[in-house]
Amino acid sequence: MFASRKLSAGVFVFLVAISVAYYSYLLSPVSASADSLIKAVTIGGGLSFKDIAALLKAKGIIRSEAGFKIYSVLSGSAHTLKSGRYFFSETMSTPEVVKRLVQGPPDIEVLIIEGKSLNDIDAKLARLGLIQSGEIKNFPIADLKEKYDFLAGSRIKTLEGFLFPDTYRFAPDSSPRVILEKMLDNFKDKAGGINFNDLIIASMIEREVPAASDRALVSGIVRKRLSIKMPLQVDATVIYAKCGGFDNCPPLTKEDFRIKSNYNTYYHQGLPPAPIANPGLEAIQASQHPETSSFLFYLSDPKTGKTLFSRTLEEHERKRAAVLGL
């Protein structure tokens, strides 16, 4: 009798040990490999606890739906999981996944570099899942003019030029307005005093002149050309007229310089109607502080990043043919 009870107790302990081991296995990471994947998952606000478990299993983030449910219930987390866009590694255990879901989605860091267009920025934010494509570039500017006086005036019909390049952090559920206001607040703090024409010139300088030491000189050349009513002939404006942005735009051809657009400064005299990109502070300062020189022409060598200056058209055309083949 005593031996039988001792045997039963041993079996019970064995079964408990097996159950614990199996439960631990269900909670273990899907992969232990150093080359494991990072997977993006959006937890919709209308998903049930059961739906979340099924989604995570289908995405290969958890090993077991049952293990996820049991752990979430036992830890008191089942009803505190937050919706949003998450990034999970296959090396995360179920308790780590649950902890992240309870904490909520982390902010998404976005680097907006100098010289990106409104279209380029919209596309990047859409790729990161922060917006639907078009929500930034098509946002009604009239809804922002009351808050931002630098957007006032009938000439300003686009947010191009006003989305200040910087590193931003956005909550995954940020609305397009919240995203724009963060960028516009930054512009206001760092460059809000610039006039619209200077901002247009700054945007061209940002795209055309890589070297900081050359930018004030180019600013002076642009203003000299404007004063004598000479076409600006800025290649970056042709790219903008052709593609509306710079990412993934094909190289310019000779035919592109005949595009009939007010943004094409070979076709249209004077400044473009609006900035062609979003300039950084360095280009803005160069635009506001032009340097006088005897030069009337410039071009950027795409291979070296150097700006080549010329006093005469003949000299400029020789350099242009040698550097650009145009």
What does this structure look like?
This protein has 326 residues and is mainly α. The chain folds into 3 domains: 24-103, Dna Ligase, domain 1 (2-Layer Sandwich), CATH 3.30.1490.480; 108-191, no CATH class; 201-324, no CATH class. Helix content is 44%, strand content 9%. It is built from 12 helices and 6 strands. It has helices at residues 2-27, 49-58, 65-74, 94-103, 118-127, 142-145, 176-191, 196-208, 212-227, 235-243, 281-288, 313-324, and strands spanning 38-43, 84-89, 108-112, 166-170, 297-300, 307-310. The strands form 3 sheets. It has a two-stranded antiparallel sheet. A two-stranded antiparallel sheet has the order 3-4. A two-stranded antiparallel sheet has the order 5-6. A hairpin with a 6-residue loop joins strand 5 (297-300) and strand 6 (307-310). It is elongated. It starts with a helix and ends with a helix. The mean pLDDT is 91.
